[in-house]
């Protein structure tokens, strides 16, 4: 494990391992689902990746898979079609393309074959469930990028892993959003986590990260971070109170069912 990580990382790792220890033998054929939510720049992707590497090393789970909700972005072509119908140009600050990353620019998780249907299939023990990824080179989702297959299905020859559960870590901005389309997702999660990094720190990270965006000048990128990413951060915060656990990057706390010190 990376020893530069705050104390809450080790606590969170232990909490997730305990889920495997309490999972009944009759349910080992279905994965444990853990969700990470938080504002843009809060550290969701990095935390999910570090948890994956750390948990694999414990030999607690047969497989540890990370699924990013970025794969459920609407394709650019679809965003542009919607913008055209609303008479927006690509550079209009009200267009979906400009505001990409807002909750409206994602596919509705409650639609047929959407995220909720796929989570349901995971917990029904489906032999293979696919999830889209996000190709950052082309800036669009890529279908069937991440495929979950239970380690103890009939096609798996590694019998030593048959008594270990699989783990799927989901990470995304709006994973805990309370709106009708998103709210049901929490029911599928054995543990839901909100990464409560201070908003100003999140926005500073996003401004630095987005300097590589094509077709924008540095000043336009900074402006877009304020217009788009700050709004998205505020929206992500609406799900904070729904988390089982709050962790603070730099704040070093793990709290169940309360904001603790009230930090945003």
Outline the structure in words.
With 264 residues, the chain is α/β, with parallel strands linked by helices. The protein has a single domain, classed as Rossmann fold (3-Layer(aba) Sandwich). It is built from six helices and eight strands, in the order αβαβααββββααββ. The strands form two sheets. A six-stranded mixed sheet has the order 2-5-1-6-7-8, with helices on one face. A two-stranded antiparallel ribbon has the order 3-4. A hairpin with a 4-residue loop joins β3 and β4. α5 packs antiparallel against α6.
Structure summarized in a few sentences:
The protein is 30% helix and 16% strand. The protein is built from six helices and eight strands; from the N terminus they run αβαβααββββααββ.
DSSP summary, beta strand count: 8
Coarse morphology? globular
Radius of gyration, taken over Cα atoms and rounded to an integer in Å:
19 Å
Structural class based on helices, strands and sheet pairing: alpha/beta
Residues in helix, %: 25-40%
- Look at the structure and give the CATH class: Alpha Beta
Q: Estimate what percentage of residues fall within beta strands.
A: 15-25%
CATH superfamily: P-loop containing nucleotide triphosphate hydrolases
Spatial strand arrangement across the major sheet: 2-5-1-6-7-8
Low-pLDDT parts are: 153-159, 250-254, 257-264
Q: What's the average pLDDT?
A: 87
